[in-house]
Design brief:
two-stranded antiparallel sheet; mainly beta; about 40% strand
C-alpha cells in the first residue's frame, strides 16, 4: 500500500499539503490537481481516479514561472513506481 503527499501554494501557505488515503501499489492512479476560477473565486481541487478528494477556496492565488514537478523529494520516502501521461497546463490568473 502507498499514499500520496500532494503540496501546493494555497492562500497564504506556500507548502499546503494533503496526505491521501492508502492505495494499492499494483494499479494505476489518476491524479489531477487543478485551480479554476468559479464565480470569481479560485478553487483548488485534488481529484484521484475521477473522485474529488479535496477542494478549497484559494483567496490568494499565485502565478509561478519555471515550475518544477517532483515525483518525490528528499524529506519523504519515495515509493517504487512509474509516471505516465504527465500533462502540465497553465492559464493566466485573472
Amino acid at each position: 500500500m502507498c499514499k500520496f503527499h500532494i503540496c501546493s501554494a494555497v492562500n497564504t501557505q506556500k507548502n499546503y499539503c494533503l496526505n491521501t488515503k492508502q492505495f494499492s501499489r499494483d494499479k494505476w492512479i489518476k491524479v489531477k490537481i487543478s485551480q479554476t476560477m468559479i464565480s470569481g473565486v479560485h478553487e483548488y481541487v485534488i481529484t484521484l481516479n475521477d473522485e474529488k478528494v479535496f477542494q478549497k477556496k484559494n483567496m490568494k492565488p499565485t502565478s509561478f514561472d519555471n515550475v518544477k514537478v517532483y515525483a518525490s523529494n528528499p524529506w519523504n520516502k519515495a515509493e517504487s513506481g512509474y509516471i505516465r501521461n504527465l500533462k502540465v497546463t497553465t492559464d493566466i490568473l485573472q
